[in-house]
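FYI - complex with NAP, inputs then prediction.
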Amino acid sequence: MASIPDFGTFFSRFLAARTRIEYPYCARISDKKSMKRKIIIYGASGGIGSALARALAKRDTDLHLAGRDRNKVEELANELKTGYTVGDVNDEDYFARVSEDAGEKVAGLIYAVGTINLRNLRQFKTADFLADFRVNALGAALAVQAALPALKKSDAGSAILLFSSVAAGQGFPFHTSMGMAKGAVSGLTLSLAAELAPGIRVNAIAPSLTETPLAAGLLNNKKNADAIAALHPLRRLGKPEDIAETGAFLMSQQAEWITGQIIHVDGGRSSLRTGG
Ligand SMILES: NC(=O)c1ccc[n+]([C@@H]2O[C@H](COP(=O)([O-])OP(=O)(O)OC[C@H]3O[C@@H](n4cnc5c(N)ncnc54)[C@H](OP(=O)(O)O)[C@@H]3O)[C@@H](O)[C@H]2O)c1
């Protein structure tokens, strides 16, 4: 007949069993955490940037958020339990601060910062053109430059995602400044993709009009919004999630054979004519 162990024996067997079960379990959790890929998102508090942050957080990615509006960035960082850096892309020191805060090794960089500045050519001043170029194109180049050492350290290759526009591939009236700035982003995407291959993939998304704060001025009148939606073969405006899902895929390892592409997430607007 098996003897009943005394309390001391029972307790030491219990501790030994716990150690065998829990120690490897804890190790697996911390291994998994350290293997998470970290992605920096500039413009993280914007409509598309925040949708991308949420989409990537669902895919078990570590994030570092960079944004201009402290309250909005802090709120999102608390929601997603991530690090963040506050600043303006017109301040060149900002890029080094973001890279330092994000850490020594990152697997991705997203630059979802942008402006919309639509007027007649005659109304643009030199400073307006330069401001759009700085925020949309130069800022993207400086963000990549600052993150490059950390991107190069990524174990399984890394990825960059920039934002062009439907207006870089198709002419729209009143878009001279935006067309110039976003055309530069498309060119930057191709040049970087060639220069950084094979270790770092570089792609851009060129959205058509998407329901975010950036587009609010064009969409606050329902009649206008419906008329613009009807110009799209898929008969609606973009939602931030449409762009975010494509962006999350491009940043993932499932997209490891895609680089140097400008992906048109635009309801068919840039390539189809369905009205005869
Ligand atoms: N929505 C569209 O219809 C559309 C169409 C084509 C291309 N895109 C491009 O998609 C990307 C994301 O835009 P979105 O639609 O998400 O617009 P959004 O909601 O306005 O987000 C843009 C982000 O850029 C930030 N930003 C602007 N100027 C900045 C500066 N000087 N320093 C730091 N941050 C600055 C904004 O910060 P604050 O929150 O502080 O303002 C905001 O977080 C942009 O590159 C945009 O050009 C959008």
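Residues 7-35 form the longest helix (29 residues). The pocket of NAP is lined by residues 43, 45-49, 67-69, 72, 88-90, 112-115, 135, 163, 165, 207, 209-210, 212-215 (CB under 6 Å).
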